[in-house]
Structures are given as structure tokens and as C-alpha cells.
Amino acid sequence: MSSLFFLLILSGCSFFIQKIDSEIVNQKNYLKNIPEKKTFCPLDRSIHQQVINANSKSQEIFEDFTQKNPQYHFIDRLIFWSLIQMSIRPDQSSPSSRLQVLISHNKSPLYLDFFSENDEAQYPFLYGLDWIGKKFKAKNLEFYAKILDNELSQKFKVEKDLEIFLELNKEKLKQDSALAPFFVRGTEVLKEGERIPLLNFTQLIKVYRKNESKQKIIVNTILNQFKTDMNQAGYCNYDFNLYQNSIFLIDQSMPVSNIFGLATIQDTFMASTTQKIDQIQAIDSLPLFYGSSKVRSSAICMVEKDDSFIWAISNLSRDPGQHLFHLIRYGLARSQRIEDVDKLIRHSRYLFLSDPLRLIIESNRSRSDQIENLLKLNVPVYNADKLGNIWSFSKFKNTGRFIIDDRNQGSFSCK
Predict the structure, then answer these.
(1) What's the pLDDT tens digit per position in 179-190?
(2) Are the C-beta atoms of residues 88 and 156 closer than 8 Å to each other?
(3) What's phi and psi for 224, nearest 5 deg?
(4) Cα–chain-centroid distance for residue 309?
(5) Element housing 287 (H / E)
(6) Mean pLDDT of 109-124
(7) Which of 26, 118, 173, 316 is the most exposed place for a label (fewest CB within 10 A)?
(8) What distance in Å separates the CA atoms of residue 362 and residue 385, rounded to the nearest whole number?
(9) Spacing of C-alpha 28 from chain mean position
(10) What is the rounded distance in angstroms from the CA atom of residue 166 to the CA atom of residue 184?
(11) Distance of CA 222 to the CA centre of its chain
């Protein structure tokens, strides 16, 4: 895992940060120069099932599968959709990936984080799905694997993030006798839109069972509470008390992860998977990349109030918690509509970095007074076209919607 650096912002910055982090829910024309992009399902009709990830073709295949199999309940679909991610993102949704989960089933919210400090044949992703299945008295993994092998005849298509990973590791893949047949065509790796070979899920579960006794998986369920100035409370996996005192956690690298989710009228599930890959290595000659789950986690927050709740997952940043902290200060906990949360996610972001101390800001999304205040800080200020990635599920009264970030590749389906 990359070393973490503690960044103590110079005294005097707090005044400006408070002005920057003022609430924006009621502000108008805050993104007049940014093209409009749909980020959530329509609010004017009833939606029975929502699915999110960054691969629209996989959503179409999964929606067809669930429509043909209405007998499967929410936990069944959760496990099916999670297993499918390994075919779509074998780099980040691998058996060896860290798995972070939010589940609201029967109105009982649950946070789970599965990872291992060990490196030998550790499969936190599959361990976590097995754990969830047992907790909710679902079928075993073998059952779900057999169904997918029998019924998923369509091949999934490569998405942009997987193409980037394959291109970065092209020469190593060419030399790997196990992985090359799956991901190399001639002298080139698979490109976006090309089809990925189907994963044999039954074989995969056999590999997991063979190594089940070796699993040393940590299961974390603890979140840290935070309170806003208006005494509104929420829970996050990052300690916002540090951020409140202008102490941020800056990673040397920017971990990549795969965020996906599923929601019905009553129940909701969101997950993030990620792993560090030091060398190109297959898992038992399957089209899957083995890595380490000892990696920086995505930042996750839950805000619960009365008959409403807001979930947010932040990734694609050297300090994903910093973005959620700012979102809270923008007024996330006070949001009363889906549109409010969407507006907050679209709003300008900034990020403090160290070595050297500097500030990065999305100037194209910023108000002029915000930029003026930042320029008064005694630190260099740089522009970025986009910073981070935040996806949410927000529910107010009886209406809940996934919200994706318009900055990055993402897709949602509405049935």
C-alpha cells in the first residue's frame, strides 16, 4: 500500500476554506458552461429496478436476465450482479480485490469492508459475497455460478477503464501464456467495445473452495460519526475530525476502483472493489488478474434522517475522503431532493496536495468569488479539468435514485 502523508494546511487558510465551502444548494447558474448530462433515472415515473456501473452493455444483459428470472429476490440479484463484475472488470473486480459494500435490506443499513493483510491466495471479493449470502440465508456461491454459466450466453464488452489497464500492461500480457489468449489479439490488446471471453464461474468457485481454509479476511463494519455545524450527523469510513482540523490524508498514487450497484423499490446495494496489481498474474488460468487487497479504500459516507438517506462513494483521487468532506460542508446532509444531491456532486471541487504543498481546483466549474478566495491562500493554485469521482444513492420519502458523476464514464439503467 502506498505511503500516506499527513498534510497540515497552513494557519490562515481556514477562513478562506469556510467561505469556499459555503452551501450551494440555492445558488443558480453555478455550472452554466458545463454541458448537461443525465446522471439519474427520471423522477416522473416509477422505477422498479435500477442498475449502475460503467458498462451499459452489461446492464442490458443483466436486465434481460432478471426479467427472464423474476423468481430471484434482491439478495440473489445482488450476488449475480457482483459476480458478473468479474467478467466486466477482471482488473479491479477480481476475487483478490478489496470489497466495500453498503446494503439496505428490510430497512436495515449495513456497511461491510472485506480485505486481507495477507498476500497468499486471498480472495476477499468472493469471501465477502459468500459472507453476505450466509448472513441473508441465500443460496451458496455454487448455485449462482451454475445459473450464470447456463444462462449468460452473451459476451460482455470492454469498457474504457479496462482498455486503459490492458494497454498499460500490453507487453507483459503478450508474454503471459495464461492471459494472452483472453486479452491479446495479434499484436494488440482488446479495445473498448470488443468482446471479453466468458468467465467460467463454476471453475472460479471451485478455485475459491480449494483455498477457503487459507482465507484470512478482515471484515470491518465500523464507520466514524461526523456532525455538521447544524448538528446533523452521518457516518464515514474516513475520520472527518482530521479534515475538520485541516489534516488531510494524501496518497502517493491514485487507486482505481470499480463502483457498481443495484436498487429495487425497497432495497439498495452499492459496492466498490479495488486492488493493487504489482505483476501480471492470472488466477488459475482464468481471465482474472490476481492482486493485493492491501490498498487505499474508496471513501464512503452514509447520512440517515427520518425516512430519507444519502449514500456517497468517492474514488479516483489521491484523497477521496477530502472530496466527501467538502461535499458535507457544501450541505449534503441538508439536501431534501434528488436534484439537490446531483447539484452538489456537479459542483466545483478542489484538492490540497503535498510535496510540494499546492492546491488543485476545477476552475471551469468554479464561481469567480471562489477562485478569488483561493488565490489569496499562501499556496500555489493549479487548474484541473476534473477531480475525483462521486456516485450516490439518495432516497427521500418513497423516491430513491442512483446518481452518477457527470465527470467520468458511468451508466445507469431504469426499469
Answers:
(1) 999 999 999 999
(2) yes
(3) -95, 135
(4) 18
(5) strand 286-289
(6) 95
(7) 26
(8) 6
(9) 29
(10) 9
(11) 18
